[in-house]
Design goal:
Layout lengths: L1 H26 L6 H20 L4 H17 L3 E3 L2 E3 L1 H18 L3 H38 L1
Antiparallel strand pairs: 1-2
Helix pairs in contact: 1-2, 1-4, 1-5, 2-3, 2-4, 3-4, 4-5
Amino acid sequence: MSDLLLPLLKLGAALVLSAAVGLERLLSEKPAGMRTHILVGFGSALFMIVADLGGLDAGRVAAGLITGIGFLGAGTIIQERGTVHGLTTAASIWAVAGIGIAVSRGLWLLSLFATLGIIAVLWGLHFIEDVIERSKKKSRISKNTK
C-alpha cells in the first residue's frame, strides 16, 4: 500500500498546482480554464508515473507529452481579423504539462516555484499590460485634442 502513496501524493500535487494556474485563466475569462489545466497537469503526471512504474522510457514519454500538449494548445489559438488570440492560454497549457512532469519526478520545490512563476507572469504582466494600454490611450487622446 505504501508503494502507492507517493504516486497518489504526486497526482494530488499536480492537481492542486495545475488548478492554481487554471484558476487564473478562469478568472481572466480565457478559453481554457481550471478543468483543462487540471487535466493537462494531472494527465502529464499520470503518464510519467505510469512510465516509471511500468519500466517505460520516461524521456520518450515526456517528449511525447510535450509534443502532444503543444498540439492541444494549438487548438486554443484563434486568428480573427488580423489578430491572434489564445497564445498565452496555449503557453499556459504547455507550461502546466511541465508542472505535471516536474511533480512526477519528485521535484517539489521546482514545481511550486514554476507554478508561482507562471501565475506571476499571467497575472502580474496582465496588470502591467493594462497600465501600458491605458497610458497609450491617454496619449492618443491628448494628441488628438491638440
